[in-house]
Backbone:
């Protein structure tokens, strides 16, 4: 059994990450999903949330936006709409997006189409802020 995982993180626009890691924790639709070397094959969907991976003693954080995760033969493939490592997130921009979403939600009812859109924007902004406040931990 291998003692490492190959992690590939891809968006429709680019390969965000391709690295050998020790552990992956992803935001599954029914809760956090932990992947270690030797994990059984798996295909699942991901929610908006924080993907974390460990490489040696370092822990890295990435904000992800909807997608899929596949585990096969110690390779973890993550295909998401967007992926932003903590170091790449502009905290001021994320906080501004949060403010806009909160303001818009105050004027909408849950039956309106734009409510769902703004709720998703709020969720993305909250995750981006949470991840931006974390840097690689050694």
Residues:
């Amino acid at each position: 059994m291998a003692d490492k995982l190959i992690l590939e993180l891809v968006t429709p626009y680019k390969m965000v990450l391709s690295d050998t890691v020790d552990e992956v924790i992803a935001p599954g639709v029914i809760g956090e999903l932990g992947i270690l070397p030797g994990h059984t094959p798996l295909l699942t969907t991901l929610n908006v949330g924080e993907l974390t991976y460990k490489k040696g003693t370092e822990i890295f954080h990435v904000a992800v936006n909807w997608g899929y995760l596949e585990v096969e033969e110690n390779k973890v493939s993550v295909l998401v709409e967007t992926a932003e490592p903590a170091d790449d997130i502009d905290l001021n921009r994320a906080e501004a997006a949060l403010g806009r979403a909160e303001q818009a939600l105050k004027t909408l009812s849950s039956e309106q189409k734009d409510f769902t859109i703004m709720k998703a924007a709020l969720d993305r902004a909250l995750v981006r802020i949470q991840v931006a406040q974390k840097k690689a931990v050694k």
Observations:
- The longest strand covers residues 58-72.
- The chain has two domains: 5-87, 89-132.
- The chain is about 25% helix and 45% strand.
- The domain at 89-132 is CATH 1.20.5 (Single alpha-helices involved in coiled-coils or other helix-helix interfaces).
